[in-house]
């Protein structure tokens, strides 16, 4: 269970980073 929880946590962090990164890219192009 611990491994699964860590995996889910990593996915959430990765998705959050992608979201922030894409917003930064959009701001640069605007």
TrEMBL record:
<feature type="transmembrane region" description="Helical">
    <location>
        <begin position="7"/>
        <end position="29"/>
    </location>
</feature>
<keyword id="KW-1133">Transmembrane helix</keyword>
<keyword id="KW-0472">Membrane</keyword>
<protein>
    <submittedName>
        <fullName>Uncharacterized protein</fullName>
    </submittedName>
</protein>
<keyword id="KW-0812">Transmembrane</keyword>
């Amino acid at each position: 269970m611990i491994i699964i929880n860590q995996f889910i946590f990593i996915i959430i962090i990765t998705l959050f980073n992608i979201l922030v990164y894409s917003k930064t890219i959009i701001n640069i192009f605007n």
